[in-house]
Amino acid sequence: MKLFSPEIAYRPVPSPCYDVEACESWLSHMAAQGLFVEKLGIRLARFRRGTPCSVRYRLTAARLKGGWLDVVPSEPLSTEKALYAESGWYFVCAQQEFFLYACEDPCAPEPHTDPAVQALSLKMARRSAWWEFFGAVIVLVAQFALNGHGRLVQLLVEAPLLSICIYLYFFGALFLASRDLYNILKLSRRLRQGYAPDHRKDWRTAARIHWIGQGVTMGALLLLILGGVCFLAQSGTRQPLTEYPSPLPFATLQDLADGTLVRDDPNFNTLEVRHSLLAPTILDYEESGKILQNGKVVLDTSLTVRYYDTHSPWLARLLVNDLHENQSLLADEPQPLPDLPGTDAAYGYSGKEGVFRQLILVHGGRVMSVLWIDADGTQNFDRLAPRFAEAFSVA
Predict the structure, then answer these.
(1) Which domain holds residue 191?
(2) CATH number, domain at 298?
(3) At the N or C end, where does the chain have fewer CB atoms within 10 A?
(4) What's the pLDDT at 1?
(5) Residue 44 predicted with pLDDT over 60
(6) 370 and 356 in contact (C-beta within 8 Å)?
(7) Per-residue pLDDT tens for 158-200?
(8) Are 165 and 224 in contact (CB under 8 A)?
(9) Does some domain include residue 1?
(10) Same domain flag for 335 and 358
(11) Which residues pair with 333 in a beta bridge?
């Protein structure tokens, strides 16, 4: 059969099979329009065009043993199909944990006459819905755990579109999983109470909710892919310090001591410049070298600087925790600082051995983290912090 045959039509599925009543009602509505389902997918259904007529559709749960390793078969057992055929119902297709049957005889008996027994048959579908829900929760929690520890605000500032799309996608997936679980549990409860399913349920209301969830999730996924490509394209543009012509808004090695600067490996002495909607200027700076006076080394260290010029002071303050977490393995013990005029806030940290020191300065919407090496204990906060603060406050 040709894919684009005029006898074939494709329609988006407005409700998942977990919303059994809405899905059955929609398929009956389509049959009344002359579209008879042949294949029911998760997002798309294939129909055969024909003369409009009244057709009943029923989603029956696959009869599984309930083991964790059970695999849903592609079609029911021949004995089951024969049993349904005796009552006027024929097998159409399988979808997830369900088999779809149809009947054109309005007088044919229902395939399920005991709601309590039908509720028991939904065991596999309920279990799958629970796993889908728990999976969405675990993924969302893992995303917060991975990006929330030293990266949540930083990712938001550096790539706001990417960050928002990530969480829209995961929250959208959680919403859809919650809807599936709610619908199957609601039907199971109704059946256990002895009520027959509502085969004429208003599927349009359920469809609107489903389309919103699907639209947010798929839209976020597309924007996530686009944002990820743009973010990767912007990253990795490091340049040697000698090629950056503009003055820097923070102190460098040359500003920390008087003398002649001799830089080390040029592969380490680099700068990356980026921009975002929330931070017009983002600088990732690395410098290593020595300051010489009369042939003697007066300063021998390396600097790792992350600088953000954001649109709002509260963004700058929110970045402080992430900037510290990024270097907490090297410098995690809070240290007292000298008076640093011209800054709104200042934080100092040292490693246990005192080799690494981190200084974080905040002024207005600007925030800077600088990590340096103090191998001999002479490049302490009392000596270098005022120089960093002086250059930072006047930038």
Answers:
(1) 123-234
(2) 3.40.1000
(3) N
(4) 44
(5) yes
(6) no
(7) 888 888 888 888 899 999 999 999 999 999 999 999 888 888 8
(8) yes
(9) no
(10) yes
(11) 350
